[in-house]
Amino acid sequence: MLADRKYRVGVLGASGYTGADLVRLLIAHPNTEIALLTGERKAGMSLKSVFPHFVGYDIPDIISIDEVEWPAIELDVVFCALPHATSQDVIKGLLHSLNHSILDEMIVTTTADQANSLRSEVKVVDLSADFRLRDTETYAKWYGKAHDATDLQKKAVYGLTEIYRDDIKKADLVACPGCYPTAALLSLIPLLKAGLIKTEDILIDAKSGVSGAGRSLKEQNLFVEVSEAMHPYGIGSHRHMPEIEQELAVASKNDVTISFTPHLVPMNRGELETIYVKLEGNETPETLKAALLSAYENEPFVHILEGSIAPATRMVRGSNNCVINVFPDRIPGRAIIIAAIDNLVKGSSGQAIQNMNLMLGLEETTGLMQAPMFP
Amino acid sequence: MLADRKYRVGVLGASGYTGADLVRLLIAHPNTEIALLTGERKAGMSLKSVFPHFVGYDIPDIISIDEVEWPAIELDVVFCALPHATSQDVIKGLLHSLNHSILDEMIVTTTADQANSLRSEVKVVDLSADFRLRDTETYAKWYGKAHDATDLQKKAVYGLTEIYRDDIKKADLVACPGCYPTAALLSLIPLLKAGLIKTEDILIDAKSGVSGAGRSLKEQNLFVEVSEAMHPYGIGSHRHMPEIEQELAVASKNDVTISFTPHLVPMNRGELETIYVKLEGNETPETLKAALLSAYENEPFVHILEGSIAPATRMVRGSNNCVINVFPDRIPGRAIIIAAIDNLVKGSSGQAIQNMNLMLGLEETTGLMQAPMFP
Amino acid sequence: MLADRKYRVGVLGASGYTGADLVRLLIAHPNTEIALLTGERKAGMSLKSVFPHFVGYDIPDIISIDEVEWPAIELDVVFCALPHATSQDVIKGLLHSLNHSILDEMIVTTTADQANSLRSEVKVVDLSADFRLRDTETYAKWYGKAHDATDLQKKAVYGLTEIYRDDIKKADLVACPGCYPTAALLSLIPLLKAGLIKTEDILIDAKSGVSGAGRSLKEQNLFVEVSEAMHPYGIGSHRHMPEIEQELAVASKNDVTISFTPHLVPMNRGELETIYVKLEGNETPETLKAALLSAYENEPFVHILEGSIAPATRMVRGSNNCVINVFPDRIPGRAIIIAAIDNLVKGSSGQAIQNMNLMLGLEETTGLMQAPMFP
Amino acid sequence: MLADRKYRVGVLGASGYTGADLVRLLIAHPNTEIALLTGERKAGMSLKSVFPHFVGYDIPDIISIDEVEWPAIELDVVFCALPHATSQDVIKGLLHSLNHSILDEMIVTTTADQANSLRSEVKVVDLSADFRLRDTETYAKWYGKAHDATDLQKKAVYGLTEIYRDDIKKADLVACPGCYPTAALLSLIPLLKAGLIKTEDILIDAKSGVSGAGRSLKEQNLFVEVSEAMHPYGIGSHRHMPEIEQELAVASKNDVTISFTPHLVPMNRGELETIYVKLEGNETPETLKAALLSAYENEPFVHILEGSIAPATRMVRGSNNCVINVFPDRIPGRAIIIAAIDNLVKGSSGQAIQNMNLMLGLEETTGLMQAPMFP
C-alpha cells in the first residue's frame, strides 16, 4: 500500500469520550481521512458543537447511523464505539448490508451469484465488549442477554496487539480489549506463558480516571462527587473480569479465577494496576522482570521501567504507551507487578488505531508516536 | 473534672499540616485552650502568617521550643507533631525538665527530696512514629537510628483508641498510630482476634491524599506532578508496615507479615485501604461483617456500612469517622475489606484529640462530632 | 431564651448541596434539633442514602413536603432551600397553613375569630432568590414569571447579615443573598455608603467552585468536563446581577449598573471576586481599606487582610468567614478589591444560620466559629 | 528547503516544564532532530530520569551548557528556555562564540579577516523575557538589573506570530511573548489598530494553570496549597504588564496603561483572560467581533467562536490554538473579550515552534496541528 494513501475511516458512536479520542488521534494520523461520524443523541450536530475543542478542524458532522449510505460511503475502516450489547447488532447489520467477505465462511451454501457479487473488505475495529468473549455463554451471563452474532464472534480476533499481532494482521473484525484488561494482560501473559507465577491468587487492584465512566449523566460522575475524593466500585462484579480470566487461561492453559477491584480516582485520564501474584518454585521478582523485558524488548509501546522506578499515570498521559515494573513483596513467595496506561489511548482508542494500522498493512506505530503530555 | 474547665494545651511542631489540623479541631473543642505553639523554621511568626486560614482566630504566635518556659507555662496536655526521630528526644527532655511522675518507676532509687518535689502530670500525645514500636530494635531497623528513650517507650500506650481505650485512659504518654495503620488495624484486629481470617497473605493496597506527605518542599509534591495523575510509592519499604505487623501480631497472637503498597492520589485529604484476606475454615464475608458490626456497634466513630455500600473518602472528609465494609472476593476462600478515613483526622489529629479526651477524663467524643464536609 | 434550648428546625429541599451543608452546620449547632427534612425526588429515603457522609448521625429521613403535618410538627425555624420560583409558593402556603402572624398586616380586615386563633411565630429563612428582589417587576423580568407572593415580598428582609443586622433580628422572613452578591456587597457597600468610589464602571470578575451549580445532572458539571479546565458562563446574563445592583443602589442612593462575569473553577467550594472600581476625588486604595477596616472591625466573620496579602479561597473553606483586601490598580484613579468566601457557607448555608441566630435572639456566632478546613 | 530535511535543534534549559513541552512537540515535528538538551541542576542525567514520561523516546541526555562543543554541534536552531535575566548573557555568549552574522551590523569596524571567517546562521528562539522589551530602561526597571545585551535587543523580533509574521521570517533572534501577553495581545491588537476600543481603562483579569509557575520548589506550588483552592497573585506588579503595554502602544500608536490581575487556578495547563474594554464612538460588540473575524479568518491557530459560545481552557489543552469571543457588557459602552490558550503551547513552546517554522522557511503549521486533548 502506498505510504501516502488516505484510508476512509468512519467512527460509529463518536459523541462519547472514546469517540473524541479516536478523532483526536485520527487527526494526527497521516494515512486516514475521517469520512463518517455517527451518534444518535447528537445526530445533526457538528462535532465542534458536541466537542468544542475540535473547533478549527475540518471534520464531518455527526449523523444518525440510519442516514449512512452504505456502501456508497466507501469506508476502508469502521471503528465501532457504541455501547456494549448494541455493537453486535450494528456490526452484523453493517457487514450484511456490505455483503462482506467475512460472511462467506459463515454461510454454508453460497450461490454463484452471491459469490460473484461485489465483496466488501472493510475492516471493523470494535471498541465495545461485544466480541471480546470467545464463549458466548459467558457473554450472556455477564451482559444479561444472549449474544446475537455468535457466528461472527468466531471470526473476531481479540485485539491485544502485542499478544495477537499476527492474527490481527489477517483479521476483518477485531475486538479491542477493555482498558483494565489491557494493563492486566500485558503484565501477566508473559509470566503465565513462561510458568513463572501461579494461576491461583492473582489479585488486581485497579485505579482509573473518570473518563472511563463515559459522558453519560450520572450523579456519581459529577465533579463535586468525585473531586477531592476516591472510592472503589463494582467490587467483585466488574465486567472486565471474565475478559481477563479468558486471556489468562489461554496463556496459562488452565482455568484462572482472579480477584479484581477497580477504584475511581479524581483525574480525567489514566489507569494504574497493582497486581499481587504468587511466584512459582524458585522464581523471583528479578526473573519475572527479566521475562517481561524479554517479551517486550522490541515493542514500541510497552516499556519495562529501570530499577525500582514506580509506574505512574503521568508517564503515559495521552499516549499509547504502557509502563510496567516488578517489585518484591514483603511476604515471601510473592511479587507485585504495577502497570500504567492511559485508559482512553492504549486502553481504548490508541490500541484500536494500532490494530487498524496492522489490519491495513501500515507501520504499526503510524500516528501513535506522540509523546505523553506532562504536565 | 468540670465540664466547662479549659485545659491548657500545647502543640509542638505546629507549622505542618498535622499541626494545622490539630489547631482546627482544638478551636472547636469546648474544653481546651491553645496555650502554646512551637515550630523551628517558623518561630516568631504569627500562626496566620503560616496558615492564613486562621485569620480571625485568637491563637498564640509560634515560638521556638527553646523559648518555652517550662514548667511555668502550666500545660495540661502536650501534642507532639514533630518529625520522626526528633520526637523522642524532645519528649524525654520535656518530661525530665517537668520532673514528670512517669519517670518515677523508671528511676530505681529516688531520694525523699526528689519524691517530694512537685510532680508534673502533663499528658503527652505523640503523633510521630517514635513511640509506636514496642520493640526498639525494630524501631532502629526501620528508622535507621537507635532509640534514645527506650525506658520511656515501655510506658507508652499505642493510641488506637477503639482497641486500647482502657490503657489510654490511664496513660501519661500515648503514641498515636500512623494514618495507614489506623485504617488497616481497625479493619483487621477484630477479625484476627476472633480467628476468622488467616494471618498469611494479608495484602493491603492503600491510597492516600497528598497532605500525608507533609508541607516540605519536594518536587514530587508539586501540584503539577500530582494533579491529574497517580502513582504508588514506598513499595515494600513503607515504615508503616512494622507498626501494622506489630499490632496484628498482638491480635492474632502470632507473627504476621503483611504486604503493603501505598499510592498517592490527587486529593488533599482522605485515605482508602483495600485489604485482601484469606478466610479461615468456614468463615464467609458475612461472618466477617458480623464480627465487625459486633466489635464496633457502640463506637461513635467507626461505622460498618450497610449492604454493599462501598466506603468512599468523601464520606469521612474532615471528620474523625472511619467507614468499613466487607465484600466477597471472586476467588473462593477470600474476602475484601475496605476502609476509609481522613488521614489528617482519624489518621492523625482527630484520633490524638480522642485520646486526649480519654486521658483527661472527658467524654471521648468531645469536640469531634462535627459532620464530614461534603461537598 | 435559654442558652441550652433546642429549637426545632426544618430544611425544605434537603437533598441538594446547600441542604447538605445546612445539615452539616446544624449538627454542630448547640441550640438546634433537626426535626424535618423534605425533598421530592428523594422522598422516603434516609439522609445517609442521599448523602452517605451522614452515616452515624441521627437525622430524620427525607419526606415529601406534602407529608409534613403542619402545624403539629411544631417547628421554630424553616430553612427553605428549594429551587428559585418554587420557594415563594411553598412559603406562602406554609405561612397560611400556620396562620402566621406575618400575615396580619397583609390582610386588610381580620375577624375577631381569626385574630384570636393561634398565631404561629415560626421563622422562615429562604435561601432561594424568590424574596431577594424588592421590585417584583425586576423579579419577573429576570426569572421569567410573575411573582406570586408580592405582599409577602414586602415583609421580607434581605439577609446580608452585616448590613441588615437590626432588621433581621425583627424579621419573620429573611431572604438570604446569593453567593456572588454576598462577596460583592460586603466589599462594596461600605465604600459606596461613604462615597469613596464611583457608581459607574464597577466590574466584578467572579470565580466559583462547582458546588454552586448544584447536584442536578448536567453535562457541563461532569468531572471530566470541569477538571483540569475553567471557563466563564452566564456572561452578561447571570441572575445575581439585579440583586447586586439593587443593594448597591440602596448604599449609594443612586441607580447602579454593574458588569458581572462569573467563571467556573475546578474546585468543590470557594468563591473569589476581583472587583475593579473607580476612585472618587482624592480617594486612594488606602482610604478604601481604612473604610473597610472601620466597617468590619467588630465583625466576627469579615476580615480585612493585612498589608498586601491576597485573599484566597483556601483561607475560608468550610467556614462562614469572608476575607477582603484592597489593592492599587496600575491605572491611576482605580483600585482593585478582592474578596473570598466559601460559596456554600457565608455564601449560603452559613449566612442562613447566622441569620437564624439573630432571629431567635441567640448569639450571632453560635455554631459558626469552626475554623476553615485547610488542607 | 527540503520537506524531509531534519534540522538540528537544541534546547537550553530543558529540565523545566517549558523545556518538557518543547521536547514533546519536537518529537512530533517531522523536520527536527533534537541534538542537544542542557540543564545545570540536572546535568548528566538522562531526560527520562528528569521527566519519566519520555521513557521510550530516543533523546540525548541533559548536559551542562559549559560542555556544549560549539560550533561543532552544528545546530540549526537554539531554543532558549532559561530563567529571565540569564538568557541574555547566554545568548550573547553563544552568538559571539559562533561568530554569528547577526553581530555584523552591531560591530562598527570589522576587519577583513573577521568578515571572511565562517558566519553562523543559527536561529535563536528565546522563551525568556530577556528580549521582549524594546526599551532596555523598561527592562531594567521591571527586572531589577541593567540589560546586558542592548545591541542584541535591537535585532530581536517580538515573536507574536500572527502579528509579526513577516519580521519573524527574516529574524535571527525571536523573543517569544509571555503566556499572558499572547492571549491579551491576540485579543486586543486588531481592535486597537482599527480604533474600535479606547486605550484607557483596559482591564485584564487573567487565570492560569499552575505549570506557569514552573517546577521550582515553592510552598505555594505544593499540591495541597493549590488543589481545591484559587487565589490572585502579583496584583499590580506582574512582569507581563510592560510587555502587554508595549505592544498595545504599538498597535494604538499611543501610550497605554493597563490593569492586569493574574489568578492561579487548580489545573496543570490552561489560561483564560477576561478582558474588559470601553468601546469607541458607535462601536458595538458585534463590530469588535467582526474585526477579529476579519483579522484571523485565515489563521490556522486563532479561532473566533460562533454565537455566544464561551471560550474554555478545555478547548485548547495541549494544542497551539487560541479561542476568542466577544460579549456585550451590561454597562453601556463597554464590551468583554474572552480568550483561552494553553499557557505551555501557544503561550510558550508551541508558539516558539511556530516561529521556528517561519524562520526556517517551513510551513508555519508543521508539527503543530495536533488536536487539543479533551478529556
TrEMBL record, chains A, B, C, D:
Q: Which SMART domains match?
A: Semialdhyde_dh
Q: Does the keyword ATP-binding apply?
A: no
**Entries under CDD domains matching the protein:** AGPR_1_C (cd23934), AGPR_1_N (cd17895)
- Keywords of the record: Amino-acid biosynthesis, Arginine biosynthesis, Cytoplasm, NADP, Oxidoreductase
Q: Where is the active site?
A: 179
Q: Spell out the Pfam families in the cross-references.
A: Semialdhyde_dh, Semialdhyde_dhC_1
Protein localization? Cytoplasm
What GO annotations for molecular function exist for this entry?
N-acetyl-gamma-glutamyl-phosphate reductase activity
What Gene3D superfamilies does this protein's entry cite? Dihydrodipicolinate Reductase, domain 2 (3.30.360.10), NAD(P)-binding Rossmann-like Domain (3.40.50.720)
Q: What class of enzyme is it?
A: oxidoreductase
Q: In which pathway does it act?
A: Amino-acid biosynthesis; L-arginine biosynthesis; N(2)-acetyl-L-ornithine from L-glutamate: step 3/4
Residue span(s) of domain Semialdehyde dehydrogenase NAD-binding: 8-171
Which Enzyme Commission number(s) are on file for it? 1.2.1.38
Q: Is DNA repair among the key words of this record?
A: no
Q: Which reaction does it catalyse?
A: N-acetyl-L-glutamate 5-semialdehyde + phosphate + NADP(+) = N-acetyl-L-glutamyl 5-phosphate + NADPH + H(+)
The record ties this protein, via InterPro entries, to: AGPR (IPR050085), AGPR_AS (IPR023013), AGPR_dimerisation_dom (IPR058924), AGPR_type-1 (IPR000706), NAD(P)-bd_dom_sf (IPR036291), Semialdehyde_DH_NAD-bd (IPR000534)
- What does the UniProt record say this protein does? Catalyzes the NADPH-dependent reduction of N-acetyl-5-glutamyl phosphate to yield N-acetyl-L-glutamate 5-semialdehyde.
Q: Would you identify the family this protein belongs to, as annotated?
A: Belongs to the NAGSA dehydrogenase family. Type 1 subfamily.
NCBIfam families recorded: argC
Protein's recorded name: N-acetyl-gamma-glutamyl-phosphate reductase
- Organism from which the protein derives: Kordiimonas pumila
